[in-house]
Amino acid sequence: MKYISVAAAALMTAFPAVAQDSSDPIKLTLHDWSGQLITTTLMGEVLKQAGHNVEYVQADYIAQFAGLKTGDLHVAMEIWETTGREAMDEAFATGNVINLGETGMQAIEEWWYPAYMADRCPGLPNWEALKDCADAFATPETAPMGRYLGGPVTWGGFDEERVEALELDFEVVHAGTDAALFAELEAAYQRQDPIILWIYSPHWAPAKYEGQYVEFPPYSPECYSDPSVGVNPNAAYDCGKPRGPIWKVAYKGVAEKWPNATKTIENFHITNDEMGKMVAEVDLNGKSVEETVAAWMDANKDTWSAWIVK
Amino acid sequence: MRGRWPLAFWLGLFGLTWLLSAFSFQLSKTLDARWLLKYPKQWELPLEGAIKSFLDWLVEDANFGLFTFRDLTRAIAAVVEMPYQILRDLLIEGFSSGIGDAAVQIAPSLSWIAVITCATAIGHYARDWKLGALVGGCFLYLAVFGQWESAMITLSSVLVAVPIGAVGGLLLGIAAYRTPWFDRMMRPFLDLMQTVPVFAYLVPILILFGFGPVAALVATVIYAMPPMVRITVLALRGVPEEVIEAGRMAGCTRRQLMWKVLVPSATPSLMVGVNQVIMLTLNMVIIASMIGAGGLGFDVLAALRRLDIGGGIEAGLAIVVMAIALDRASQAFAERSQRARLSGNLVRRHPWSTTVFVVIAATLALGLVLPGVQSYPDRLTLTTGPFWGEAMKWINVNFFDTFEAIKVVILNWLLLPVKKFFGGIPWAWGILVMGLIAGRIGGWKLGLLAALLMGFIAATGLWPKAMVTIYLCGVSVLIATLIGIPLGIWAAERPGAGRVILGLMDTLQTLPSFVYLIPVVMLFRVGDFSAMVAVVLYALAPAVRYAAHGLRSVPEALIEAGTMSGCTRSQLLWRIKLPMAAPHLLLGLNQTIMLALSMLVITALVGTRDLGQEVYIALAKAQAGPGVVAGLSVAFIAIVADRIFNALAEGQKRRLGL
Asked: Which cellular component terms (GO) are annotated to the entry (chain A) (predicted)?
């Protein structure tokens, strides 16, 4: 880290005309999942290369909006369309938080099953197969209904409504956190026991475990709002979950104080694939976030230097 | 307070409640009165909105003329941050000047060797070589197992939070000792500080104190301070009258009397309070890391998020090891007697200070040349991580079916019926019954209080969730008691086994619950059963400890008398020891309930649908109002349970003539 800061100092003296942005540190928020740590560290290191000062602050995914509104925090690198929409809208409405565009990654959230379940429930990944083999996913507590493990209640997702609308014989059980969600998957996978659950990517789980997302009728806004649209003419939510971009957001003061850095952040762009590989390096191969980011930056110098605006 | 038909009263009450619970659904159908089952929406108190607007006002408008409330909290944050940052620089980061990454290092941090030497010196100073070796060994463990950096970050926050908590608690305690009305006024606040789950007030604290380690420190102090206040009041009241008299005769002023007479003579008890503050601070490490404290707590969370069970256990054990070191050292300080001063020159008189100084200077100089002296070399660290992961897998693959069978039996025969029973109780009857139970045990005042507090829960619309909380807590406490009391008896009867059992309990209590939450989910799946197992593991300790302590403190003479009159071992236990230990057992039960309730908030992370979940959802959505309301509901249940069991223990004591 220290070497990079020396390099940054050298850069700053080399290009005196750069000093249009403030030299105060830009505060980037860190959450507790590796993908986000990688995205943020990557952004931070690129900003340092561009001669900015950067500070990382640990903050909760949703609670951070309180800080982004007041300017305690400056930039959040990963706000998912799927889980952060409500909080984002509320924050944008105050006028204190601005959208810095997409990260390039697409969030996918859907029902997912391990590969060995394909034999026990022929017809998957088509969702209609679930109608006939709910009992293959049953546990003693839910039998004869199948057991679907949903995400924390705070994630929303309308799974109870989906089960109802698509007439699936499943009981929805909510995990309290995503750690609990993946703990169950890990345990079931070790035993090759039946399981079907909510998984999202980019995440290490689809890389570590073999399996597939269930293919529901594709999502459309009308499917959620209008009962008559979709397979079941009498119910809404008779389709899959929406997919959407992952956004970058910032405190509005950032654009005034660090105009160049803001443009650099807006230029940041990375794909699901690249991110998936880095997440796997960290979570499955035990590399540190810094190492992984440094390796990517060595290999993709052209990509990230193109983001930098001076 | 004993009625003429105690048994008939309790049986009648239970029978009636059971009937109402079983048939409440039919009853509300036939009477066409939905309000029997569900508290009507239009009667709900608009508390959540009120709390939200109060907080908004506090954050945005509250004003003392010259400055706003928020300026005040931010100023406090800045004052607290200073020593914290200095400690962090000293222990791990090194001093540097300039902001952000343009900073230039002025001086490196203390080397790991220097910190371990300091720790050893403190241990030796507090008691003897053995303690010095233990404390030093604990710190060496942190270095060898690669936890050094995180451990030092955690240590700096502990070193800031503990003095604030201890000194603040001491001052409040002194104020309460001096002015009785202040004492009375503060008691309910202390109760709330100890029972409202921390998750409930994290959001307001974040808003007021900003993001980062300081907010975490503030939350930690709020949680860890109350025992210090209580112990201070008790300790000052316990100073013998003669000592105070002597002070007065010597012509002490009020201030001199307090600081030169009362506080010094109460020091041993006060140190017990400091010890409590340290342990509670370490309990908070994980939750604090959720809002930006970093350190070992963050390592535990991050490891568990990627299902690195070994990593989680190692970081968790590092917290335990640190707790052991700080606990033993602070206990030794509590028991420490003044020793003769050493004579001779400066070096002779202060052998340890000199050594520490020499080691710091030497490692500082050497560290510039040899990096291994400055920070522990990475390639020499040990890890047991893979072992834990493999062990977990082996248990999961081989024993899951057995666990599943046990689980299904307990679910069907215990958990589900109890859940149905509590879930069916109509809210109005529930309030009444709570009042009757409390009134019968502790007098009409307590009965009224219990009914009012339960009424609050119903009036906020949280009744069904509260019933789930009571059911989960009740079942867990039942099982913890069934396991804990026999273990406690065993520990008391066989000192050898006792040491092992009590040591195990200490570890279970200091090990962050997150560490075993994930393995529990892997073996028992998401659901009430997993939550119950986690709660039992956490709440077992007081049941064991109080039982062992209670049995050991039965007067020798009574046991002697029993033996003389020809009691067998089991008669001794059942006829003499257990009845005499009953007040202790009840207090242990009380503590078990308190711990179970505080753990239920954590088990929301597994996925329970109780008040804990309400608190957690409010935190996750950053909504201050609902979080505070649900938190208060948990606190009220805890307070009612606490008062009832204290009244029971008091009654039992009076009956035994203690």
From this structure: ATP-binding cassette (ABC) transporter complex
